[in-house]
Structures are given as C-alpha cells and as structure tokens.
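Help!! Second protein's tokens look totally different from the first
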Amino acid sequence: MNADQLADVVAGVSDPEIDVGLRDLGVLRSVSLTDGRIRVHLTPTRLSCPAVGEIARRVRAALAEAAPGHGIEVVWERGAWQPAAVTAAGRDALRRGGYRVAGTAPRCPYCDGEDVEQAGRFGGAVCKVPYDCRGCGSTFDVIGTAGCNAMLPTPVRGGSR
C-alpha cells in the first residue's frame, strides 16, 4: 500500500465521541510511509481531548489490518485543529448527529431553524456550546468553540510501536 491508500484507511476510522471519520472531522493531517514505518499526523479537536488514546488505538488497529508488519507511529499536532478543517461531508454527518460546527450563525441541525438560544457556556466538553431551538424544542451542541484551539508550541508524539 502507498501513503494515499493508508490515508484512506485512517480516514475511515471514526472519532469515538462523535461518529464521523477522522478526515471528514478535520483530524487527519497526513500519512507517510518510509522504510516500512507508517507515520500518521493527527490533531485533536481540543487540547485535552480524552479520546486521543482511543483514536490512536483505532488508527493502529486499522493500519495493522490493512498493512501488516509495518511499524506505526501516531503524532498528535495539538492546537492545530480548526472548525474550517471539517469537510462538507463531515458537516453533514455532524448535523445528522445533532451538532453544528462553529463559524456561522447557529441553526438547529434538526429543523434548520434560526430561532435558537445559547443554553450555557459549555456543553459536554469545553469546545461544545449547548443551544436550544425554540422552533422544534431540540437541544444541540455547536462544536469548534474557544476551548478547541489552545496552542502548544510543538507536536506531542505518542502511540508508537
């Protein structure tokens, strides 16, 4: 397999917290293959994302199945994720899951209504802000808010084998 094919394998791995593939969520940065070693660069959607260990495990498992015998290194580029990195397919998947992505005026993902009200400062995570829709009564989160893009000066390596 070449690096593009390996990137497609990683793209098919879903985030464990939000069921969206890593490429569509904007988490996958790059995949390289050098001397039998696969290096995957990822960026979490927030600095203290509790799912990084599970994501790295899923990535290693998918790559080990697709390309057995290769060494695998997962490199986390903390602070690099931005809401603009979410693809159109990712935005659609997030909407179907009851989320909206920051960057535009919030609309209800269920009824597409504009009559929404912020329901708190933080949702289930620091980068999720809860909203209530007055039109259909649904609650939803907008992801990609201020808590997502805290910066660290250098990438953090982890998940090597």
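Here's the second one for comparison:
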Amino acid sequence: MTIKPIIYLPDPVLRQQSAAVERVDSEMKSFIDDMLETMYDAPGIGLAAIQVGVPRRLLVIDIAGKDEEPAPQVFINPELVATGDETSVYEEGCLSIPDYYAEVERPATITVKHLDRDGKQQVTEADGLLATCLQHEMDHLNGVLFIDHISKLKRDMVVRKFTKLAKSRMTA
C-alpha cells in the first residue's frame, strides 16, 4: 500500500467533476487500499479520490472513534437518492484545507446508492456524522468544497490564505 500525496486548496484539480468508476478490479481495490492508508495517515475520517488527483467517483470513510476498531467504508459511484427534511450543523474540516474548520448545515439524514469494495450494489441510510461525512466527500466528486457552504466573505479569506501559502511553498 502507498500513501498518496493529498492535493490542497487552491489547486484547480479539486474543482474537477469526477467520472464514474467503470469496473471494480484488483487495480481499483489496490487504489482503495492506498486511499484508506492515506486517509488514516493524514489523519482524517473521509477521503475522495479527487483529493489524491484521481478524478473518479470513489470515496472512503471511517468514522470509528479513537478507541474503536477501524470500520472503513467504501463508496463507489455514490448517488444521493433521498434526504430527510431536518438539517443538522457540524463543524467540518477537510484534508485538502488543513487546519481550517467551519460550521456547515446539511440534511440530517440521507440515503445513498453505491457500489461497495466488491462492486456489489448497496443502499446506505445515514444520519449523524456519517451523513455529514458522506455529503462532504460526495461534494468533492462534483468539484464542491465545504467552504462553498459558508459565507462568501469567509470563503474568500480562506482561499486567499491558501493561495498565499501555495505561493510561498513554490518559492521555498
């Protein structure tokens, strides 16, 4: 397994639409393992393929607590099929926007149709942290970042900060 480099804001790759995964074969399963290792190493609770530069509709999540057994979940070609009427607010962060957190309001419950690691069709009903994490990662597949859900003023400040950081990394 290989830890992949994570792409950071303001890299335009993060704004790409991801294409469907055509088949789940041994190469894809190996990539899923790499994504999980990358997510755990970061450390994070979710990672979309586009965040490691692969524009495919694939994401991995593990919301197990620190003292719990890891419980990785794989979502290939996830599709939001239903949302509940109630919303919830969570403080979100992102591996592609390190050390920045903001409260985001999203549907509290969702239903997602997807393929699992073995390419089998699944339907997942989620609430709480899993619902939030799934929506956050699925946004990535459509080129949307969690900062797109906050005020324009705050978003512009974050983008400016990360653009400045990227420029200083290039000149260092």
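Reply: Different proteins will give different token patterns, so don't panic. The CA atoms of residues 81 and 111 lie 6 Å apart.
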